[in-house]
Sequence to fold (314 residues):
Amino acid sequence: MNIGQAAEASGVSAKMIRHYESIGLVPRVDRQDSGYRDYGPEDVHRLGFVRRSRDLGFSLERIRVLLGLWGDPSRTSAEVKALALTHINELEEKARHLQEMATVLRGLSLACDGDERPDCPIIASLETAQKVPTGQVGHNSLLKAPMRKRRARTTGA
Amino acid sequence: MNIGQAAEASGVSAKMIRHYESIGLVPRVDRQDSGYRDYGPEDVHRLGFVRRSRDLGFSLERIRVLLGLWGDPSRTSAEVKALALTHINELEEKARHLQEMATVLRGLSLACDGDERPDCPIIASLETAQKVPTGQVGHNSLLKAPMRKRRARTTGA
DNA sequence: TGTGGGGCTTCCCACTATGGGAAGGTCAAC
DNA sequence: GTTGACCTTCCCATAGTGGGAAGCCCCACA
Fold:
């Protein structure tokens, strides 16, 4: 089976299959006399595993671990579950972050007339780091690590 | 004011300030005799605007537009609001996507014993594209554009 | 048997946004 | 003058995916 057919069968693009192979995520497959890669059912199966893992948001590095667990007969479901729970927490944290930004912006938008005049609380809020009328959020600076202190300079004149 | 002080005052790292300047997001500032960049209050103000826009998840390209609207006395609040609403929709769509992945995985995790045995519905689900007992979600392949059809080949022998 | 076109190969570049680090110049305090 | 923090530019790295070029392979059809 050529790479194009493996791509269609697995849902992973040929481009990505080559990439996954190049970074060692999936093993190098045999070559035909022509030099074309030759895929068997097992290879396609594995690519499908990768594809579904990606669909659930796993990073390639984590999929590397998942593939290891998949092929390890002495794995425990506890290991798999722990990995999944870690990932779930990360997903939900990111989702919360995005939703919080949306909520802040939603509050500002509600206060914006959206007419022909230039006055706009959205622009005003971006301009100055002040509280926004969201009820409970009240700050713009989310999740950014504080910057390290710099030595004060006597900026002359 | 040197770049380090502008960075601390604005919350944008010196590295990023230089980068923003290099891509034309913020104008090139004057240089001191030493060749050091020299920042004034207006520059810091603008950098703060960029910082807060980033904190709300705006892309640099969209911040370019926002900066244009900010400095445009003939802007309308409708323009700003439209841009904000577009962004809100994108944020919430991404948040939903992440949350949906988390929910699917949560369902699989609930069905996983997490003990010393290898049997694991999480691995099983990644292995084969079958329905998962989540109640309403029931699919793994989310949001991926379908791949274009390829011509079937008579894979000889 | 020749040819056309689609698939395959490798290799490089692009994207987003940010940071690390090197090599070297500048400034201010002591 | 020395020292150390700060500045300069330039290159590289990240994560994941796609675009595209140059060139070879293969097969169907005329």
